[in-house]
Design a protein that fits this description.
- The chain has 358 residues and is of the alpha/beta class.
- The protein contains twelve helices and 13 strands.
- The strands form two sheets. Strands 1, 2, 3, 4, 5, 6, 7, 10, 11 and 12 form a ten-stranded mixed sheet that branches. Strands 9-8-13 form a three-stranded mixed sheet.
- Helix 7 crosses helix 10, helix 8 runs antiparallel to helix 9 and helix 8 packs antiparallel against helix 12.
- It is globular, with a radius of gyration of 20 Å.
- The two termini are 36 Å apart.
Length: 358
């Protein structure tokens, strides 16, 4: 990418007043051809918008008409951007000084890609949060290097890019035209959680390419209270959205033949997640999520028609049965063996049915 090809920085903000000074400083320190800074505010209830107006004069503030979650904010940022490439950031992301240059390096090495994801690290612990990854046939993203210390990944020089079959929208360099052409970009119905996995899979189905950029580092702060997962916490609302949005992803993106063949594995994962919800004391949230998924099926089925019409790739070439990385507290103790058995059964079933998937 030519050095004079400017990049738009697009930031999603909701109740992020405490994050904004650090984010402003990180954006100002970015090396690379930054052309403009846009901030889409999702009807924040704190003083963030007024702080932006007063202390971040070079940023253009876009206030959403109604609160709809990060997906609609990102779509608006892409529509309003004056440049073909946009670095999308959450308000709790702190890209390191050379992050943009490393993302551009990956893009230049693989010009066919339309999305490049940075390696996102938990600011407090230094563990990897997001690093690209894959998609399980049961409808679960499989993050690469989840909770691995960064120092363990420095044994050899990281490549400038690696292929990926999903992304998490904390720090993404995206080609705005191709993303918006994919059914308008992020699906606003998801509200929060899985909206990035859904878009990633739809892009892949259309024949697009997604990269991870291991050299592009971005620190990740505490997230949105009541929604973001940190440490041992798994918020109730997130659990409900997981139960709902995963169903919508499966119905929209998997071929009917794949859904039928994969159904035993899908239901087995559902059973395991319901048990985990019960252990957390929130079985009702899981049930409410499934009811919401059923109520939304007419809209999802309408969206499915466009997804299936535009697909260029087969499910069996994009999905896997790699081990699902459950929360760290379940990897040891009484839950560890049942979860290993679960992953083994899921893999066994996919080996049997994958050759016949759509």
């Amino acid at each position: 990418m030519a050095e004079n090809h400017k990049i738009t920085i697009g930031i999603v903000n909701f109740d992020g007043r405490s994050y904004l000074p650090g984010l402003r400083n990180a954006v100002r320190a970015l090396r690379g051809p930054v052309g403009e800074v846009l901030i889409a505010d999702d009807r924040s209830r704190d003083e963030g918008p007024s702080w932006i107006s007063e202390h971040w004069p070079e940023a253009r503030l876009l206030v959403m008409e109604r609160r709809g979650g990060p997906g609609p904010c990102r779509n608006r940022l892409l529509r309003e951007a004056r440049n073909p490439w946009v670095l999308l950031l959450d308000n709790d992301a702190l890209p390191r000084e050379d992050c943009l240059l490393r993302l551009l390096e990956a893009r230049e090495a693989r010009p066919s890609a339309c999305v490049v994801q940075a390696r996102v690290l938990d600011k407090e612990s230094g563990l990897v949060h997001y690093d690209g990854g894959g998609m399980h046939y049961a409808g679960v993203p499989i993050p690469r290097n989840l909770h691995v210390p960064l120092r363990q990944l420095r044994g050899e020089e990281a490549p400038s890019w690696i292929p990926s079959r999903t992304f998490q929208a904390v720090c993404l360099l995206v080609e705005r035209g191709k993303v918006l052409d994919c059914d308008g970009g992020f699906d606003p119905a998801f509200f929060f959680y899985y909206e990035d996995s859904d878009l990633a899979h739809r892009l892949l189905l259309r024949g697009e390419e997604i990269l991870g950029a291991p050299r592009a580092l971005c620190d990740h702060l505490e997230g949105t209270k009541g929604l973001s997962q940190r440490g041992r916490a798994y918020p109730v609302r997130r659990l409900r959205l997981h139960a709902r949005n995963r169903v919508w992803l499966l119905v929209k993106c998997w071929r009917l033949r794949t859904l039928v063949l994969a159904l035993p594995g899908i239901l087995l994962y559902d059973l395991a997640f319901f048990v985990l919800a019960c252990l957390r004391g929130h079985p009702l949230a899981w049930c409410l999520g499934k009811l919401e998924a059923l109520r939304g099926l007419p809209r999802v089925l309408a969206a499915r028609r466009a997804v299936q019409r535009d697909r260029r790739r087969r499910d069996r070439d994009l999905l896997s049965a790699d081990p699902i990385p459950f929360l760290p507290q379940f990897r040891k103790g009484p839950a560890a063996f049942p979860l290993r058995v679960l992953n083994g059964l899921l893999r066994f079933w996919w080996v049997l049915v994958r050759p016949f998937a759509g």
